[in-house]
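Appendix B, record 7
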Amino acid sequence: MERKEFYQKLFARAQEAGFSACEAYYVSGSNFSVSVFGGEITDYSAADERGLGFRGLVDGKMGYASSQALDEDAVELLVEGARENAKLIESTDEQFLFAGAKRYATVDNFNPEVDEVSVADKIALCKSLETLAAQADARIRPEAEATVFSESGNVEIVNTLGLHVQRRWNLIGGGVQPVASEDGRTSSGFALFYENDPRKIDAEKTAREAAKEAVDGLSAESVPSGAYRVLLRNDVAAQMLGTFSGVFSADLAQKGLSLLKGREGERIAAECVTIVDDPHMPGQPSSTPFDGEGVPTFRKEIVSGGVLSTLLHNLKTAKKQGVSTTANAVRPGYSSPVGVAPSNLFIQPSNLRLEDMLDVLGDGLLITDLQGWHAGADAVSGDFSLPARGYRVEGGRIAGSVHQITLAGNFFSLLKDVEAVGGDLKFPSPSNVAFGSPSLLLPALSVAGK
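Structure tokens (predicted):
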């Protein structure tokens, strides 16, 4: 059945069943990945997927149901499923559907050239990542884990109030994890890329970065425990921001799960820290002209010069707080309920190069990897204690590799203590919600070492 016809039948049946308003959230897409080791394919997958989430207001409650099929049977299953789901809801929060807007931004994150890259070319690219990594240094083993992936997606929201919006996105990416060995010691490295334009792919750069990380690790040593000046590299700082991003959610704040509840207008970070959510960034799969409720999105400063300007809202949380939505409703999948999340959340960069940041650091540590986020970070309190590795810095210059240390601190304290923000903004990995940051200089963090 064609989608338009399916929507018409679904909405008509829902209205017969007593729904005052209802909505269809349709998602389709394709995913491809291939992995190689030693020149041989070790994993291969290609899949197309689609599904429809239905939600509607019945007796003041919002019921949800979902289906992968778009046929006559699915119509009845969706309507009955949503009605039964609504009966189970105990919350008295007012629920909303959005009627649509006259104007939406143009977002450029779909490139037909991505979908035109052949499977053979993706496999060849994957093999080249392994080969290039091995060629980067004689200490790199010839076999390395390498992966290339591509994704494309389509989202369409239609409801009985007049909303009808649609967006498309795609990307291609890859990564390689080489292993270096020398004098009985081994060390691994990793680097990842993703692009919205196949012509921008630089496999040699990615392989070289991964190989350097692996080779540098061969001479890594621990450092004495103590408080150190620390420079968090951009990708590590982005991970930090992503791990604790829930503190900016009005939904979590209203549930008592964010320490930023009711603190709008307060200084929560250093003056050099501005945190932005920009849903219109070109080339990012998470960029979108509308949020999960169909509301037009816009760029916003969540933290402006260290001051908390706003939490992130959808229609429901905004109504509860008596403010306007920030257009941050999100549905991670077609079967998911509406939540709250950013699109492209990042710390606004300065014009300082990494070399400049190292000069300002002087003596301290450059942290290039933090692990164990799920076990070692408390997303509510902000506390973290994480295994780390990186480089020892003396006089603003790299003096040696560091491993077997643990970095500990608190995210809220970290925001207030930021001494300088770099200009090397990076979004390290693609996602439905993207997190980016430049390098961040901190005057003191606790390090447990030898």
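Remarks on this record: The longest helix spans residues 119-136. The chain has a mean pLDDT of 97.
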